[in-house]
Amino acid sequence: MKTKIEKKDTIRKQIIAASHVYREHLAGKVFLYVVGESYFEVVFQTDRFMHLTGVASTLSAREFYQKAKKSMLTTEQFYFDQKHSYHNAKKKLPYLLLLPVLTNRLVCVVKDMRTLTLTYKIGVTNLDFTLGLSEADR
């Protein structure tokens, strides 16, 4: 059985691996999804990466991403709390590695997708996992 330190280091390694996938396939790119006669764009911003990992940090979102992509993120630079639980991060990170699948394969679009805590205007899914999307500030 892993210790808490080992579990947190496993999460750190997954965050770093996910940041490399994010940088290579998603960061700063705009994807156009067409559904019938309507369409929407999805932008994968670097300052949203930390949210996708499911952890909290005292670093800014931009600093967190920079340290992760340079493989310099330490276990002391992120933490778990009631809103950002270890179990949530453990569940989210494997899918973050697979996120490019939602940009280069056929997907389903779900309108008014509800979770336990939020309602998203749109969700994109490959039926294995779903990404809830919200409108960006304009």
Question: Main beta sheet: strand number and arrangement?
Answer: 3 strands, antiparallel
Identify low-pLDDT runs. Answer: none
Strand order of the largest sheet: 3-4-5
Oligomer: single chain
User: How many H/I helices?
Assistant: 5
The total count of strands amounts to 5
Overall residue-averaged pLDDT value: 93
As a percent range, the share of helical residues equals: 25-40%
Q: What is the global morphology?
A: globular
Structural class: alpha+beta
**Order of secondary-structure elements:** HEEHHHHEEE
Q: Could you tell me how far the N terminus lies from the C terminus, measured between alpha carbons in angstroms?
A: 48 Å
Strand and helix map with partners:
Layout: H1 4-25, E1 30-35, E2 38-43, H2 49-53, H3 61-69, H4 86-98, H5 101-104, E3 108-114, E4 119-125, E5 130-133
Antiparallel strand pairs: 1-2, 3-4, 4-5
Question: Would you kindly provide a written description of the structure presented here, covering whatever features stand out?
Answer:
- The chain is of the alpha+beta class and 138 residues long.
- The protein has 5 helices and 5 strands, in the order H-E-E-H-H-H-H-E-E-E.
- It has helices spanning 4-25, 49-53, 61-69, 86-98, 101-104, and strands spanning 30-35, 38-43, 108-114, 119-125, 130-133.
- It has a 3-stranded antiparallel β-sheet with strand order 3-4-5, with no helix packed on it. Strands 1-2 form a two-stranded antiparallel sheet.
- A hairpin with a 4-residue loop joins strand 4 (119-125) and strand 5 (130-133).
- Helix 1 (4-25) packs across helix 3 and helix 1 (4-25) runs parallel beside helix 4 (86-98).
- It is globular, with a radius of gyration of 15 Å.
